[in-house]
Amino acid sequence: MESTGNRTRTLEQVMHIVFLATATASIISVILISAFIFMTGIPTMAEIGLGEFLLGRNWFPRHTPAQFGIFPMIISSIYVTIGAIVLGVPLGLLTAIFLARFCPKNIYRLIKPAVELMAGIPSVVYGFFGMMVIVPLIRDVFRGLGFATTGFSMLAAIILLGIMILPTIIGLSEAAIAVVPRSYYEGAVALGASHERATMSIVVPAAKSGIFASIILGIGRAIGETMAVIMVAGGQSIMPENILSGVRTMTMNIVMEMGYAAGLHRDSLIATGAVLFVFILLINIAFNLIKRKVR
After folding, report:
1. Tens of pLDDT along 105-138?
2. How many CA atoms lie within 13 A of 79 on its CB side?
3. Fewest beta carbons less than 10 Å away: which of 163, 166, 175, 282?
């Protein structure tokens, strides 16, 4: 017995060290990435001028003198992200509620694997779908209404990203709703609530922490997505005038030009990554504050 106890304690100590090492590696990785981005980005912003870099409307890295203003990319990123949230969050949340509380088992066995399959589809495949289906559809519909557009636009990017964030929101929200204790629902029904009212008034609010987490991850996916957006958004580094304008997000700007950038041009792209990092950090902080207030 004593030998078995010693082996158990040794195994626990080893696993404690393993878990500590993996957690430490994760923290160190984040620190190193942050240090690299900001050690290059902050001096670059200072060299260009913080106001000129963040609020400048011209991005002409090959001109003399070069101009590095990312304000159009910031605005485009915000617009596209908000649009994807408005489209994807309600649809994803309602689908999660349906799967968790209303879906018949035979239909669930069809929908659930389809949602999981969507999560595994590569971004470039979504991009091809956007190019071949969404872009022509937007072009034909709006040309029929008298608008001149190629279809490669902010609207195409919003629709595509709204579709792409669905698996994240549906999967995590459904899991959060499913783990709410059954007693919550049964208590509401015992007090006279209908199935729908008990679900929407008691069960879903009880799962709000998991739902908020799914929304945050969905937003992260929308902000960080690059390849699919490049294929449908148009890529113009100008201020968007309307939803049919071609746009270039911050991630698009980095990917499209990093391959040939050098010197200050390359450093300005890294500085764009630093702005994107801060942007995502602020969104996470804002959602955490909101989550605390709604508890």
Report:
1. 899 999 999 998 988 888 889 999 999 999 999 9
2. 23
3. 282
CA 166 vs CA 102, 171, 180: distances in Å: 18, 8, 21
Strand partners, 59: 68
For the chain, the average pLDDT equals 87
Say what the pTM is: 0.86
Nearest-angstrom CA–CA distance, 164 and 223: 11
- Residue bearing tokens 């030009």: 257
* CB-CB contact of 117 with 172 (8 Å): no
Record the tokens describing residue 245, joined without a space: 């304008």
Cα–Cα distance between 164 and 225 in angstroms, integer?
A: 9
pLDDT at residue number 3: 63
71-97 helix and 264-293 helix, angle to the nearest 10 degrees: 40
For the chain, give percent helix, strand, coil, nearest 5: 80, 0, 20
CB atoms within 10 A of CB 106: 7
Mean pLDDT confidence for 153-168? 92
pLDDT digits (tens, 9 = 90+) for 211-228: 888 888 888 888 888 888
Q: How many Cα atoms are found within 13 Å in the side-chain-facing hemisphere of 115?
A: 23
pLDDT confidence tier of residue 170, bands split at 50, 70 and 90: very high
Q: Which pairs count as long-range contacts for 108-115, CB under 8 Å and 24+ apart, including other chains?
A: 115/166, 115/167, 115/170, 115/171
How many angstroms separate the CA atoms of 87 and 81, rounded? 10
Side chain identity, residue 3: S
194 C-beta neighbours (distance < 10 Å), count = 11
Omega within 30 of 0 (cis) for the link into 104: no
For residue 91, how far is the Cα from the chain centroid?
15
Amino acid at 67: Q
